[in-house]
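Notes for week 9. Today we move from apo structures to complexes. The key idea is that a small molecule is not decoration. When we ask for a structure prediction with zinc ion present, the ligand SMILES becomes part of the input, just like the chain. The input block below holds both the sequence and the ligand string. Read it once before you look at the output, and try to guess where the molecule might sit.
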Amino acid sequence: MVESVNNTPILLVNGRIIDPANGIDQNGSLLLENGRVSRLFFGKKLSAPRGTRKFDVGGKWVIPGLIDMHVHLREPGEEYKETIASGTRAAAAGGFTAVACMPNTKPFNDSWAVTAQILSKARNCSAKVYPVGAISKFGRGETLAEYGEMKEAGVVAISDDGCPVENSQLMRRALEYSSHFKLLVISHSEEKTLSHLGVMNEGYQSTRLGLRGIPRVAEEIMIYRDLSLAEYTGQPIHIAHVSTRESVSLIRRAKERGCKITAETAPHYFTLTDEAVDSYDTMAKMNPPLRSPDDIAAIKEGLADGTLDVIATDHAPHSTLDKDLEFDLAANGIIGLETAVPLALNLVREGTIDATRFVELLSSNPARLLGVEGGTLRVGGPADVVVIDPDKDFVYTEDQVVSKSKNSPFLDWHMRGKAVLTIKDGEITYSDS
Ligand SMILES: [Zn+2]
């Protein structure tokens, strides 16, 4: 729940303020008033208004609220897995002040009505919710959805995520038509005839376990098509959940040519390999599948050199009914909102990225790509802020999972680094204490 403080000003003193959009990485203090960033102070003593709630954050990071541009909130239609209320509570607990939710709900979000319903449920929730509308009606890949109507209702991007747009002509038209409404097209890049019936990465592990594999090329061939269409139409495209070395390389080369392509990966693609499937653990089943150490190395290179623009969680809640099945039958996907910060901080600790890049990947870049507010601590901007303790040790146990579903491969992991105070529009949405 949002802790209502009736616009009580909040002062965060003694923080490491990191705001790449304004070139700031410096110790200082931040004053939030009336839901906005009101002042930034460096070095000097400041006088806060009467009644201000003051937090001495003791050198912890004070950064723009994190923005997850790829989550599944399951509402409407599958509220037994997650609701907009429970999903945004999980977001706040993970340091996120905003999420973009994919349209594969029941019904599919391909209309004004579903978008409006999601936004009405999201009011007063613990994080801002930006609906993503469908590329095609019912997500079936046959006819284009009504982008103008959905944009009017509040969608920030379009995607048929969960399924690829198999029809290349339809994808071409989607890129052209969406440009009139300035809606980013987010592609779930998968060539279905190659991934057909596959349940894990194709390789040694899949052979050993006797499970049907999904080859890397199923992803890469579709990314190649998508970037070709983006180049041909001159329109931007965003590639979701990149998982292989060659995908990173294709995107890097396309960017060098000036193609308006951007891309995201998820924490599990730089943390786990297909070895995690070893005991037929369905918590390691996702699409695209977990790959190899070499793919992880390439994903990290892509995050470090700017090829990959965003870390998004692909938060995909499933109940035990969907996951406690034999591997072939279990649902794809894992929850991710509450583990993104410690897993991404591993990259900072090992020197793959620095703190500034962390903020870009998890806040500034998603804000820019979606064209939404936030992603910066500029004075006058929304008071969406998170305090991160990069050294906080904790064990991620099932009883502390805030999401309604508990399908995480990271349960009982020793984690390091955590959001300890999350503030949305000047109100505290999560506090660790
Ligand atoms: Zn997807």
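The two ends are 15 Å apart (CA to CA).
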